[in-house]
Amino acid sequence: MYQTITKQEKSDLQVTCYKLHTHTYLEGAKTTSNFRENIKEGYMPLEKDITYEGLFYDYSFDLRSEEDKAGTAEEVCKVNELFCPYYVEAIEPEAKSIYLAVGLNSGIQESEFQRRKLNLVVVLDISGSMNSFFNSYYYDANRNSGNTGKSKIEGAKSAVIGLLKHIRLNEDRFGMVLFDSNSRVYRPLEMIKSAQEMQQLQTRIMEDITIGGSTNMESGFMKAIALFEGIRGQLHPSFDNRIIFVTDAMPNTGMINGNTLADMMKRYSQHDEEHTRIRVYTTFIGVGVDMNSDLIEQISKMQGCNYYSIHGYDDFVRKFDNDFLQLNSTSSSSLSQSHVASLDIVDVYGSPNANASSNGNLMFVHTLFPLLKIKPLKKSKVRFFCNKNIYIYVYNVYVLYNKPSFFCGVILLQLRTNKNQNDTDTPFQEISLVSSYKDRDDREYSSQKQVHLRWKSQDRYYANLGIRKAVLLTKYVQTVKQWIKQERSHLANNDVNTWERQSTSLQVSETSKIFLLQMKQLFEQEMQVIGDSKLQQELDILNFLVDYEPKNNSSSFSIF
After folding, report:
1. Domain VWFA: where (predicted)?
2. I want to staple 179 with a disulfide (CB 3.0 to 4.6 A). Which of 36, 87, 208, 220 is the partner?
């Protein structure tokens, strides 16, 4: 459904060539949602429940210069150029910090983002923990008695039904694996040939699947791989091979080791030297507030893999139905930024794999995915790429509230110069940044851009409000991680085992309130300058934590 626009707005849009499609961001498709939901339900989140990339995904960042906004800047991308990064800087002299925000442009035509034919296997967790409710902890002794509504498994089955609507008859292949203590093939990997066959499959899923048993994730994964191996002779490079793994990520049977499962995923997401191994990517759907984000964080760093968290029945169905394309499309397999001799990297925010590497690269990112939530008009070009969750995802330029707007996500680099500020009077430094990347067919590309970097300033300097917002959100994540780490350092290790997760009531010590209050005051000041009302959700959390007093072990609060 498209948003109605006036004739004048339509004329304006012909300049930017974009139009709003459905909604502008995807609720729940980020690690941060587990952080929010645990606080909402009165539980203490894990430190890994909130990530920089997860929070960045929840926002849009306008990184254009004033020349870009005025339409006077040189065209950034060549037609059909896959990546052409966009750079803006910020300086905070009191902290001796230089920030470089990396936005990613593209000159790819819309047709490039139509998904390929698909070999898809859904691996569904039917262990006992999936019978619990979305807002409860399965391994708590007395937490489940007051819950009403649908269970995780009910939501999962309905979501798979929604997914099936996107399977193309006589074109895509669909298979399904169920796992608890063991695994079994529910449907072989083959094409659905008729609407009648589709209807029969949907009915079976809703009526036949029951739960029980322990959680053996490795067994489920390897059974799915066996389905791909079983049709090896029918596989074709024009198809994408993907597993959608639906679980609350609490394995307690088999190889209870996130690294073991991650090794399996990594092995099958890459070609071997002889190119004989089938290449299969995995999408993880983490379910419920007790979903173990530590485990998911490990296994979702693999090349070509992505991760979403789900915290309600409607959220589940929407993710599988409305947002099917971004679950299954891969745009690029890697991206690296060249090292700059006069700059040292302090940290990278926005992707856990975007780290300084041993071979001299400034930054390396494993995978890029298209996020086609916003539909361009005919003959338009996708312009901005954005960061999402564990990896970088593609956003289109879109119209927000009927006005043409350019937004993207961001990877934020914190840098320091190894030059003495007294060496030169000039506050600028000319640097050359080279981006090297592969597409999903392993074709290699590179691009080079000269950047006029401001590297010293007497006062705070932000090239635009987009990078200012990214810096603020980075500090916010650092602060709440500090709070979680401090409070959990005093807790006994009461988990059932390494990966099963029990709840801990929300705690905010007086010591934590001191630095949370400082963050709240900074956030209020910066929010007024930045002018993004959506930041209020973070300020609400800070206000709640600063004022928090436990009441009868119940701390669910109304700002959500």
Report:
1. 119-324
2. 220
